[in-house]
Amino acid sequence: MSSRFKLFTFIFSLFCIPVLSQAQTRSIISNLANPAIGMSALFLGQAAPDLNTPGANGPSFQEAELSVISTVDPLWTLAGNFTFNASTGVAEEAYAITDSIPSIQFKVGEFRALFGKHGTLHTHAFPFIQAPIIMSNTIGEEGFKNAGMEASWMTPLPWYCELTAGGYAPIANDATGAANHPLNFNSPSHDNIPYLAHLKNLFDVDDDTTLELGASDLTGMGDDGLHHAVYGADFTLRNVPLQKSNQAGWILQSEYLKKVSYTTGVYNQETDGWYASFQNRLGQEWWAGVRVEEAFNAVADVNVNPTDTYLAGHVQRASANIAWLPSEFSEMKLEYGIARNDSNQVDNRVMLQFNYIIGFHPPHAY
Description:
Elements: H1 3-33, E1 36-47, E2 58-71, E3 77-85, E4 89-98, E5 104-112, H2 133-136, E6 145-154, E7 160-168, E8 195-204, E9 209-221, E10 227-239, E11 250-263, E12 266-281, E13 286-298, E14 313-327, E15 330-341, E16 346-359
Antiparallel strand pairs: 1-2, 1-16, 2-3, 3-4, 4-5, 5-6, 6-7, 7-8, 8-9, 9-10, 10-11, 11-12, 12-13, 13-14, 14-15, 15-16
């Protein structure tokens, strides 16, 4: 080795290596200090001639949601969703996820429980502007959300079969408040830990079509001394062509939910209902959908006079919409819905929703 080469190596190690090391450190710090951030915003224009409720007609701000996510270390990822709503204030999710255990995903924090299909969706991801009636009468319009822990196990069965178990903090019924919890899980008993069990199965029908079958159970103890539970079953048939997947395809989905309360020798079915929907992709930028639904002993926005007593009853609703998505970050959805209860009250609505997303947004579950 020549003396000139030795001199060059010495100078490089003396000056350049520390500079490269500092640059790499700054890069790591920069990535850790700047998690992926995104925001979504929903705006709605509505005409509801059968409703006398203030604010039922005209433009409105639905919500804005701020999302952050970043890797904590090789084991954990931390995510947060903070929703700002004019009527309910601020709602939040903050949770950590790890996949470090083979075939198992562990989740801890405050988040939406993995119950059914529609109950896992944020508002901006609803396929129809209005949530199904049975949702707000069982687990909440946006699903059951509370502090807890969940573990999902990918079973070794020859098809996609995932089993999830979760436990959550006790919570009181707050169906009309910011928390939107229609369930009474507020027993003072020291052993009251509301728990969830969820089963998800996926089967390949052909190269373009998958069939999903799911079942859910959410159970806890109320401060009335009764056990309260919601049971659900869901069915989804999804067609995504291998070729031109962004221009064609369809989704057929149905879900049934039932809320009950029981104790020794006593069983009470409080409410149950279902919905079925079909969405069809008309092209790269267009979707169209129809949905029918029915709920028993349920309450919906069909009260013509807001001073009337909101009595639960049999409610039916049909909805149709068309959505234009000029990009992955914006959507305009026009929807018509008509609902009727067993008191022959009718609710006709025409809605136009604007949905915008900026920055990073985590992908939705398949």
